[in-house]
Amino acid sequence: MILKKLAHDNELSELDKAICVNHTGSSNCVVSDAVRLLIGNYSQPSSFRQGEPTLGGHKIFSQHHHTSDVLLCPSHRKIDYLVAEATKFNRGSHKSTILAYVLTSLLLNAEPLMLQAFPKSKGFPFPEYFGSCGRLVAEEYVGTTLTFYYNADFKVRAAIAKQLLDMANLFYENESEMILYFTDPTADNFAIRELDNSQNVQSTAIEVVLVDLEGLIVVDKQELFSSEY
Question: For 32-42, what is the mean pLDDT?
Fold first, then answer.
């Protein structure tokens, strides 16, 4: 397991100031109170969970200059989906707590939100998500980065190449009806999980995992296609 800090101290400070300015016009306020009030401004009915509130992505995107990449191409269904998946993972948490968590993730770093919405358990090539505490996230340690496999055996490199192609296909075709675009495809953002070789599995028994999800853009496929006609 590894712990990730969601942002540098100066970025966290800037987020707090931006939230205060957005709500009070001043850079000084009680941030938790401001977030609760912002949730009220952005809330709207959910289409996934009847009678439950969700967040309006268009409102957040239009009122905040600095947001995570996932808010690009905002749509009600996309944000509603992210809130619904976060609600499933955080069963028992108060509704307002979940909305506050989703809102601050969208404004700061959406990686923990992506790990919940597109989990390893549903076949997505991401680390397993264990939980968050404040502005720290706990997730699975996968292994060494793709950089260390540049000179690996040809079969290993071929297996990696195929999995990267499969990953790109999965990002476009998956049951969520969301398209995932990765904007920072450097080798250090991928890691290799070595699978159990106890059953005489060959050296190609590896799995490529995207371990840095901060640069993901999520596009609602339904809205994309409907806007083309």
Answer: 79
Whether the pLDDT of residue 119 is over 80: the answer is: yes
Segments of 63-150 assigned E as strands: 129-133, 136-139
Which residues lie below 8 Å from residue 177, measured CB to CB, with a gap of 6+?
220, 221, 222
* Helix and strand element counts for the chain (H, E): 8, 9
Q: Which helix (H) or strand (E) holds 103?
A: helix 95-107
The first and second tokens of residue 73, run together, are 């191409």
CB atoms within 10 A of CB 169: 10
Q: Give me the residue spans of the domains in the chain.
A: 2-141, 146-218
User: Closest Cα to residue 179, out of 76, 48, 73, 27?
Assistant: 73
Return the amino acid letter for 18. Answer: A
